[in-house]
Design a protein that fits this description.
four-stranded antiparallel β-sheet, alpha/beta, binds zinc ion, single chain, Rossmann fold, six-stranded mixed β-sheet, 12 helices, GMP Synthetase, Chain A, domain 3, 442 residues
Length: 442
C-alpha cells in the first residue's frame, strides 16, 4: 500500500506563500500600519499604552519601526478580561475561544467572520503541504469547544473542501474504529495522542500500518524528532508540526511542510520577531529567543507585539518546498517556568499553593515531568513535615490520594504523588529547582 505520497503535496496559496522579499515586506508594512491605527482607534488599552510610551500610529513608517511599540503580555490579556482588547463591534463577533484558565483568568478571544476565514486559510496551507485534497477524509481528534484546536483544524479541512470528521479527543476505541472504517486519510491531534492510538492498535493486535492514514498535523504540545520518527514508523505516515496559540489565532500560525525543516509562518498574517527575553532586544535569524507575534489582519482581537514566552528561532532562507515564508524551529521551552503537559498549561505555583495548605507537608517539593511511554506523567515529590506528620496520619495511601485529587482539581490533570522523608529533597541556595523536565524536545 502506498501511504504518504510526496506528489500529493501542493502550495495552497502561491501568491501569498511564495512572495519575493520585497513584495512580502511591502504587504507587511501596509498591513502593520493599518492594524496599529485600527487598534489605536478602537481599543482603549492600546491607545493609553501608546500615549504613555509617546508613540502613535504615524510613527510606523518602516517594518523596523515596530520596535518603537511596547510589547503586550499574558498579564495584559488577563487585565483586559474578558473583552477589553476586542477591536471589532460586538455585532461582528461570530465565535469565541478561550484558554483553559487553569491559572485563574483565561484568555478570551472573539473572532469575526474575517478572522475565521484567515484561520481556515492558514490551516489549509498546512494541510496542503501534507497533501490533503478535496476527496480526502481528515479525522480531527483535537478537543472541540472553547479550545481552538478542534475548530481550527476543522475550518482548514473544510476550506480545502475535504471531509472533516470532528472526533474531538478521547474515546480511543471509537477513534480506532472510525480511523479504520471511514477510512481516514489524515489524522490531526496531539502527537502524544496519535502515538497512544498507534499503541492501542498494536495492543488490539492490529498493525497501525494497515490503517490507510497518510499523515497528519500534530501540535498543541512540545514534541521531539524522536516522537516524529516513532509516529511515522508505526503508521507509515508523514507527521508534520503545527503551531499556534489562542492569543494569536489558534493552530495554523505556523505549519511544517513535507521537507520538515521548520514551520512556515503565515507571515502575511502574523509578523514574527525573536527577542532576548531578558534584554528584550530583537535577535537576528538563527538566534534562539522568545517569539513575539503581531497579527497583521485580525479584526476581532488584534495583538501587537504579543510575547508568547515560547522559545524558538527563525530562518528566512528559501525552503526546498518552494515557499518563501519565514520558518520557525520547534518550540524547545518557555521563557517562564510555565509547563505544558498533555497540552495543558501548568504553573508550579499552582501545585505549591495546594501543598502550602496542608500542615502535614513541608514546603519543599519537586515536580518531575517525564514521558515514559507516549504520554506525559507528572510526579509531585513532597516532603512530610517532621513535626506535624508523624502522628496525625494513619492512612498513608488515603493521604496521598487526597493530595493528588486536590492537585488535580487545581491544575486540571492527574499527578502521581510521592511522599519523601523530611529534608530529603535537595535545597538550593539560589532559586529552588522546582521542576525537573525529563522529556526530550531536542
Ligand atoms: Zn517548506
Amino acid at each position: 500500500m502506498t501511504k504518504f505520497r510526496e506528489e500529493d503535496v501542493y502550495i495552497f496559496n502561491k501568491s501569498r506563500e511564495c512572495m519575493s522579499k520585497e513584495e512580502r515586506e511591502e504587504l507587511q508594512l501596509r498591513r502593520l500600519k493599518k492594524v496599529v491605527k485600527y487598534a489605536y482607534e478602537n481599543v482603549e488599552f492600546y491607545r493609553k499604552r501608546y500615549d504613555e510610551h509617546g508613540v502613535s500610529p504615524d510613527d510606523i513608517q518602516t517594518l523596523e519601526d515596530i520596535q518603537k511599540l511596547p510589547f503586550i503580555t499574558k498579564d495584559d490579556l488577563r487585565n483586559t478580561y474578558p473583552f477589553d482588547l476586542q477591536a471589532a463591534d460586538k455585532e461582528d463577533w461570530v465565535e469565541v475561544h478561550s484558554t483553559s484558565g487553569t491559572t485563574g483568568i483565561p484568555t478570551v478571544a472573539a473572532y469575526t467572520q474575517k478572522d475565521l476565514d484567515i484561520w481556515a486559510e492558514c490551516v489549509a496551507r498546512g494541510l496542503a503541504s501534507l497533501g490533503v485534497h478535496k476527496n480526502d477524509i481528515v479525522n480531527v481528534a483535537y478537543g472541540f469547544g472553547l479550545f481552538t484546536g478542534g475548530h481550527g483544524a476543522q475550518y482548514g479541512v473544510q476550506k480545502i473542501g475535504a471531509l472533516a470528521v470532528p472526533m474531538s479527543s478521547g474515546n480511543t476505541q471509537r477513534q480506532m474504529n472510525f480511523l479504520r472504517d471511514f477510512p481516514a486519510d489524515f489524522l490531526c491531534c496531539t502527537p502524544s495522542y496519535a502515538l497512544y492510538l498507534a499503541e492501542s492498535f498494536e495492543q488490539a493486535g492490529i498493525d497501525p500500518k494497515s490503517i490507510p492514514l497518510r499523515g497528519g498535523l500534530y501540535g498543541a504540545e512540545m514534541w521531539s524528532e524522536e516522537i516524529r520518527s516513532k509516529l511515522e514508523d508505526k503508521f507509515d505516515i508523514s507527521a508534520q508540526n503545527i503551531y499556534g496559540l489562542t492569543e494569536v489565532i489558534g493552530p495554523g500560525v505556523a505549519t511544517e511542510c513535507h521537507i520538515k525543516d521548520g514551520m512556515h509562518i503565515a507571515e502575511d498574517h502574523f509578523y514574527p520577531e525573536i527577542i532576548d527575553p531578558k534584554t528584550l532586544e530583537v535577535l537576528p535569524d538563527g538566534k534562539r529567543g522568545e517569539i513575539v507575534f503581531t497579527s497583521l489582519t485580525k479584526t476581532g482581537m488584534p495583538v501587537i507585539r504579543y510575547r508568547t514566552k515560547d522559545i524558538t528561532s527563525i530562518n528566512h532562507d528559501k525552503c526546498g518546498c518552494g515557499r518563501t515564508t519565514v520558518r520557525m524551529s520547534r518550540i524547545t521551552g518557555r521563557s517562564d517556568d510555565m509547563l505544558k503537559v498533555k497540552g495543558v498549561i501548568v504553573f508550579p505555583k499552582q501545585i505549591e499553593e495546594v501543598i502550602m495548605t496542608m500542615d502535614e507537608l513541608s514546603p519543599a517539593y519537586q515536580i518531575i515531568v517525564s514521558r515514559p511511554g507516549t504520554l506525559d506523567v507528572i510526579e509531585v515529590q513532597v516532603e512530610i513535615d517532621q513535626v506535624n506528620f508523624s502522628d496525625s496520619i494513619v492512612d498513608l495511601e488515603g493521604f496521598k490520594l487526597n493530595l493528588a485529587r486536590k492537585i488535580r482539581d487545581a491544575i486540571g490533570i492527574g499527578v502521581k504523588v510521592t511522599l519523601a522523608e523530611p529534608f530529603s529533597i535537595p535545597r538550593s541556595e539560589g532559586k529552588a529547582v522546582r521542576v525537573i523536565d525529563k522529556r526530550d524536545f531536542n
